[in-house]
Amino acid sequence: MTKCFVCNSSSTETILDLGKSPVANNLELDKTKSQKSKKYALNLILCKSKCTHVQIGKIVDQKEIFNDYYYMPSISKTLTDHLQSIPKDINQRFKIKKDSFIVDIGSNDGTFLESASHYSKKILGIDPAKNLSDLANKKGIKTINNFFSSDLSKAIKNDYGYADFIVSTNTFAHTPEVNDFVKGLNELISDEGVIIIEIHYLGSMIEDNSFDTIYHEHFSYWSLENLNFIFNKYELNIFDVSFLPVHHGQLRIYISKSKKFKKTKSLKDLINLEKSEDLTGNKLMAFCKKVTDTRKILLSLFEKISREGKKISGYGAPAKASTLINFVGADNLEYIYDKSDLKQGKFIPGTSIKIKDPSDIQHDKPDYIFLFAWNFSKEIIDDLKNNFNFNGKLIIPIPDLKIIDID
Ligand code: JHZ
Ligand code: ZN
């Protein structure tokens, strides 16, 4: 059994088994290759020692997951707006100077840094995906193509000096090397600097029943208590937290070495709430039970549509779609539509479901569309109505199963 990433304890327990799944974002161009994608056990484990860390049971080599990566937040207007708003927020609260050194860990195609460059030109991205770092470097956003680590931190510090701001959106849950990552943050951040991390939150996953956000790429499922524990270990203090409406329930945490930032009331409130709700105890166990029930409900819905001879396709080929399809066994989907041209023409891992341009919806005319990118419901419903002339039923699986008529 995999050891706890946080405290290294071997005393862990499997709390949820989602069967076997391929690496969620490894989309294949070839149908046969896709059907034969290598599958790995997909399960959640809980650390039974005091630390209560929730993590993936089977570790897939990070290189297999991230070397070539097709996820780009800039495909969504909601996310682009969000990433572009972060520098303004930082500047309002902490003041970015013209020579502030801003580092983005998991910088993807450079969307955040591009807007940060309006405040300071001293910016640096780090991303393990070669295709994405090449893209960012071509745009003039200096990006190191590597995984973040304490060794890399030392090298950056030698070349550029300490960082005034380190930002990392949707990256910290994407490594099993959590201790080395936080050690690296401690080494790179200046004494008065601020680290801002946005992260998929365990509390939101439980609240929304978003079990489809469990995939090998998400190594950890963080509670605030657990985050506090690991940052304290490396003399870093989380001093504030806020909820973000983007993705599927995110936390933004503010961290510093300096004690000059007082812990806010929202931070203390959320820590107390996690305790009173028994987040990593009863609440987590109830979620695991609900996931098994949800599988049965979705499977019978797919079977009913099949029996009625109706055509069903999906919308959105997020990583979440791989988990849901492989776990539920939704093999009667005709196509999946997705706006990303990096994904179109490829197949959902482990299946023969082809990803197509959403403009094909008007001639394919599915009776049902299953919304895998349920976190963008509003943006997508508008598009289905106004741009793709979809005239059928839309299934929104999460947070609660809803079937709505689009006309
Ligand atoms: P989306 C990714 O998850 C992966 P995913 C990652 N591991 C992570 O942590 C989370 O993000 C936060 C498409 N789309 O953003 C684009 C349309 O086609 O939910 C995407 O392929 N039309 C880093 O993969 C997909 O849907 C649209 O109008 O679950 C959404 O993927 C919109 C808005 C999106 O991420
Ligand atoms: Zn542990």
Distance between the termini: 50 Å
Task: Note the overall shape.
Answer: globular
Strand element count: 17
Main sheet overview: 7 strands, mixed
Bound molecules: ligand JHZ, zinc ion
Low-confidence stretches: none
**Mean pLDDT value:** 95
What does the radius of gyration come to? Answer: 21 Å
Continuous helix count: 14
Strand order of the largest sheet: 6-5-4-7-8-11-10
Strand percentage lies at 15-25%
Q: Which structural class do the helices and strands define?
A: alpha/beta
Helix content: 25-40%
Structure description:
Helix content is 36%, strand content 23%. The protein has helices at residues 31-35, 62-66, 77-94, 111-116, 130-138, 150-160, 178-188, 202-208, 224-233, 265-277, 279-307, 319-328, 361-364, 377-386, and strands at residues 12-22, 39-47, 54-56, 102-105, 123-126, 143-144, 163-169, 189-200, 220-221, 237-244, 250-256, 312-315, 333-337, 354-356, 368-371, 393-396, 402-405. Helix 10 crosses helix 11. The model has no long low-confidence stretch (mean pLDDT 95). Zinc ion binds at residues 4, 6-7, 9, 47, 49, 51, 53.
